[in-house]
Amino acid sequence: MAHHDPINLITPPAGLAQLNERSREIFRQIVESYLATGAPVGSRNLSRLITVPLSPASVRNVMADLEQLGLIYAPHTSAGRLPTELGLRFFVDALMQVGDMTEAERQSIEGQLASVGRAQSVEAALDEALTRLSGLTRAAAVVLTAKSNSRLKHIEFVRLEPERALAVLVGEDGQVENRVLTLPPGVPSSALTEASNFLNARIRGRTLADARLELETALARDRVELDELAQKVIAAGFASWSGGDNDDRQLIVRGHANLLDDLHALEDLERVRQLFDDLEAKRGVIDLLGRAENAEGVRIFIGSENKLFSLSGSSTIAAPYTDARGRIVGVLGVIGPTRLNYARVIPTVDYAARLVSRLLGG
Fold first, then answer.
1. What is the tens place of the pLDDT at every residue in 108-129?
2. Integer Cα distance of 362 and 349 in angstroms
């Protein structure tokens, strides 16, 4: 289900594959303790947690080997050990058992999305999905979606100058978007009216992406009788609403406050402040989530594997969602500290993405 992206990650030493069961168990306990508390764990506590009886001295020897491999480190002299980013990646890829959502958690997301229904805007459904996702994961929930995903109600062309017109899109949710487009020379007002009528007969209730496909098919049919200049007006209109570039995307973030929960130290607060700054730099987040669009399932970025969040020490777990034709039209996920509960968050993000895909699919 999960697709990992070890960007800028040092190639794991070959010794990782040869870790014996005792080393793996000690390492697993260090990581799980970190994910649960955020605090380093020492050899004495570890000797009590592991199932195989080992003295604190023996545990320290294993910890020294794990540190040599780059899996753990000591944040302070004489402190316990924490996992490195390489250690977290190794844990997620090789040792972690992905959990599953409870039925109550599934119903929490599914019930709210069903209550939104198709009658409201796609944005309303996504907003509700993010609210539930943020609540279940206790992290900031994010979605990257094309503005062209909103369902259309009406399109009209209004001439401004002989070779310029205003294209007005009205969405089913009442939102209005205007674009100025360049007209071919000699376009009469009747061509603008004809183009508007032609579009309005075919686009109601469709997203812009769906409408584009429908119109390309309609315009290709021999039986479609549409004035050549009106066809050029339609082509100019769709060129102005191209949905492929980042400027036509919107980022929605919910649950910032969750990132303030469970802060243990001043450095934790500084990391969260840095993360807030990163989230404000929406372009970077849009680029990051865009990298998850080609994934078949959940994609995971840990710490400095993604340069955007390297300073805040944050992780991103994201999954694409699709429309009725199975095309990827957006990405949703969560952003939080590297000590996210990966085993729980991964299936939650995956389920939310599949629910949104189902909603868009009708």
1. 778 777 766 554 566 777 888 8
2. 20
Ranking 63-67, 154-158, 317-321 by mean pLDDT, the lowest is 154-158
Q: Are 93 and 339 in contact (CB under 8 A)?
A: no
> What is the pTM (predicted TM-score) of this model?
0.69
First to last CA, the chain: 24
Cβ(295)–Cβ(320) under 8 Å?
yes
| Between 296 and 161, residue with greater pLDDT | 161
Residue labelled with tokens 């000797």: 47
Q: How many secondary structure helices (H) and strands (E) does the chain include? A: 12, 11
* 3-state DSSP of 67-79: HHCCCEECCCCCC
- Going edge to edge, which strands form the sheet with 249-254? 2-4, 298-302, 314-322, 328-337, 140-146, 249-254
Residue listed under structure tokens 């995971």: 300
The model's confidence at residue 286, banded by pLDDT at 50, 70 and 90, is confident
Q: Which helix (H) or strand (E) holds 127?
A: helix 122-137
DSSP category for residue 94: I
How many Cβ atoms from other residues are within 10 Å of residue 221's Cβ?
A: 8
Least confident window among 151-155, 196-200, 245-249: 245-249
- Where residue 301 falls (left for φ over 0; alpha for ψ -120 to 50; beta otherwise) is beta
Looking at this protein, which amino acid is placed at residue 62?
V
